[in-house]
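Incident review: delayed structure delivery

Summary: a single-chain prediction request sat in the queue longer than the usual turnaround. Root cause was a stuck worker, restarted by the on-call engineer. No data loss occurred. The affected request and its eventual output are reproduced below so the record is complete for anyone auditing the incident later.

Affected input:
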Amino acid sequence: MAFSTHLILSLIIIITSGHIVRFLGKKIHLPSALPLMALGLLIGPEGLDVISNDYIKISPYFSKIAFVILLIRAGIGLSPDILKRFLSTAFFLGIIPLFLEGFTLSFLGKNLLFENWIMAILFSTIIMCESPAIIFPMMLKMRKKRLGTEKMIPNKMMVKTLGNIIIVQILIFFTIDFVLFNEGKRVSFLPYYLFPLNILFGVFVGTFFGKIISWKKITDLENKKSTYGATIFLIILSSILFFGLGYFKIENILCVIFFAIFSCKHLKKKKSLIDNHLFEIWSLFEIFLFFNLGTQIKLSVFKDFPTFANVLIIIIGAHLVRQLILGLILLKSKYSKREALYIGFANFPKATIQAVYGGLPLIIFSQMNLFHLVKEAEIILMAAVCSIILTAPLGAFLIDKMANKLLQKEYEKIN
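Output delivered after worker restart:
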C-alpha cells in the first residue's frame, strides 16, 4: 500500500509540475527538454528529493516507452518503399557523418577525459546521434507543408535518422557489454555476431504482428473513443515487442517501425487521428523522458570545471567535424546551397538518445557494483545533458523556422 501511495503521489507531482514548467518554458521559447531536466534536478535526489525511490526504480521504463511512441509516429509516416529507396541516402547523409563525429568524440574523449579507449567509445556512442524526438515530428510537418518534398528531403532526413538510431543503440549495448566482459561479468555476444540475422528477425516479427492483427475486429474506427483505444493498444503491443526483443538483444527499433507501418495499413482511414492521439500521449511521456534524465544528474561532476570545459570543447569540436564532412558530401550533390544548409540543420539537435541512454552506464555500473567506473559514467551523463542543452534549442529552432526560407515548396500540378 505504501509503495503504491508513494508512487502515485510522485506521478502526480511529476505530471502536474511538468506541465507547468513546460508551459512556462514555451512562453520564453525554450524547448521542453530544458525546463523538464531542470525540474528533475530540482525535485529529484540531487535537489529537494521529494520523488520516491519506487518511481526512480521504474523510471527507465517510462523513458523507453516515450522512445517507443516516437518510433510508432515515425512508422506511421514511413513505408517499406521509402525505407528501401533511401538506404543509400541514409549511408551518405547519416552514417558517414555520424561515424566521423563518433571517431572525433572517441579520440578527444580518450585524450581529455578517459583513461581507456572503451570508455571513450561508450561516451561517443551515447553523444553522437541526432534526436528523433525533434527530427521526426519536424519532418512530418515539413512534408505536410510540402516543403522540400520535390527532392524528398523530409523522407530522407527521417530515414537517415532512423538508420543512425538503430546503429547507435546496437553500439551502446555492445560497448556496455564489452565493459562488463572486461570486468569479469558473464556476457553473451552471440546477438552481435548474428547482427544481419538479428536485423531481419526484428523486421520479420514487426511485419508479422502488424499483418496478422485484425484491427477491424478490435476496434470500431468510426468511433473517436474507440480510435483512442486503438492508439493505446498500438502503444502497448509496440512496447511489448520493444522490451521483449530488447531482453534477448534482438533488433527492436525496426521491429516497432515495421509493426507500426503494417498496422497503419489497416488503420489508414484514421491515420491522422491516431497520430494526433499519439502526439497527446507523447506530450505526457515527454515529461517523464526529460524529467528522468534530470533526476540522474550529479551536480558534483559539473563542479569539476576542467572536466566540464573539456566536455563542451569535445562536443562542439566533434560536431563541427560532422558538419564539415556533411558539407563536403553535399558539395557536389543535386541539392542547392540552401537545401544543403537545411540538411546540416537536420543533423544538429541531440536529445532523445541522450535522454534515454545517457544515464544507462551509471545505472548498470552501480547495479553491478563497478564503483570504480561510476565517475566516468557520471561524466558521460554530464556530456549527454550538455549535448542536449547545446544543440536541442538551437537545432529545433533552425529546423522549424528556416524551412520556409531554405526549402522549396512543391506545388501540386493542375492538369
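Verification: Residues 32-406 form a domain with the Na+/H+ antiporter like fold fold (CATH 1.20.1530.20).
Action items: add queue-age alerting; document worker restart procedure.
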